[in-house]
Amino acid sequence: MAVTIKQVASAAGVSVSTVSRAFTAPDQVQPQTLQRVREAAAALGYSPNPAARSLRGGRTGSLGLIIPDIANPFFPPIFKAMQARARRLGYTVLAADTDEREYDELETIAAVSKQVDGLILWASTLPEERLRELGAEMPTVLVNRHVEGMAELRISLAQGIAQAAEHLKAYGHTRCVFVNAEHGEHGRGKSIREVFEAHDLSLTELGPYDPRFETGLHAATLVAAGEATAVLAHNDLVALGVLHQFAKLGVGVPDRVSVIGIDDTLLAATSTPSLTTIRISADEVATAAADLLIDTIAGRGEGRVAGIGSRLIPRASTGPAPG
């Protein structure tokens, strides 16, 4: 494992922020303290991060985007829009995925951080302490993960979920299923349960599973065996799996079951039937995340929280409840 800034701080008997300043702004550190930090770093084999090099004249001109799954159709438009935004501001974007695994995320961050001036971490699975260490080592923006004091882009599904609940209630649905494909305590299941309960909609939760097409296939079989008349899926990819399996089982959509996704990817509009979904704007997300990271690199964005909203896009996969 790579030596962390926290280990250097402990060995030198100083704070993490002092170690960070020793490499990024050495003129702000007392000479004796600076010497102690450098000796500790040399003894441990610690390599200062690229952000430190950039402040000494070796800026990489690149932003790192770490996402859970590049195969998810939600992410390519975000990468493309972020690249366009970054290019206008004098940067390029280097993207990598973690395959939804914590160990892979650590390895990916270690590799990518050597080549960029700052990182955007999407729905990171790392422990809070490790994220704080990373934030002290280099400019970092979290998306859909809150750590006090770190820059964050928060995507709120509140409005979109409320509209989805109102939409289903207006169609006469009362028994609904949420296909949960998010592990851990940072998921969206709690807010969905609260909103549906507030609209007097019963909600059965399946999962948690992995956020993949195959999850939808499995969940659809379970739903078809029950009495629910509406499904809200974790994302469009899962919802498309639900639609596919319903078609295979002869379950009519929306005649027998209505289906809603989350994200509004290109596939949502082109599926059969077209998928009702909660839209998260790729352009808005990309612009806000890139701007926040560049501000953080410049020392203006630390601890700031930016927000993006959502809204329901009704299409052909939802309709009146049967009977």
From TrEMBL:
Keyword entries, A-Z: DNA-binding, Transcription, Transcription regulation
Superkingdom, natural source: Bacteria
One example GO MF annotation: DNA binding
Database matches in PROSITE patterns: HTH_LACI_2 (PS50932)
Entries under SMART domains matching the protein: HTH_LACI
Pfam families, A to Z: LacI, Peripla_BP_3
SUPFAM superfamilies on file: lambda repressor-like DNA-binding domains, Periplasmic binding protein-like I
Domain HTH lacI-type stretches: 3-57
InterPro entries membership: HTH_LacI (IPR000843), LacI/GalR-like_sensor (IPR046335), Lambda_DNA-bd_dom_sf (IPR010982), Peripla_BP_I (IPR028082)
Annotated PANTHER family: HTH-TYPE TRANSCRIPTIONAL REGULATOR GALS, LACI-RELATED TRANSCRIPTIONAL REPRESSOR
Identification of the protein by name: LacI family DNA-binding transcriptional regulator
Source organism phylogeny: Bacteria, Bacillati, Actinomycetota, Actinomycetes, Streptosporangiales
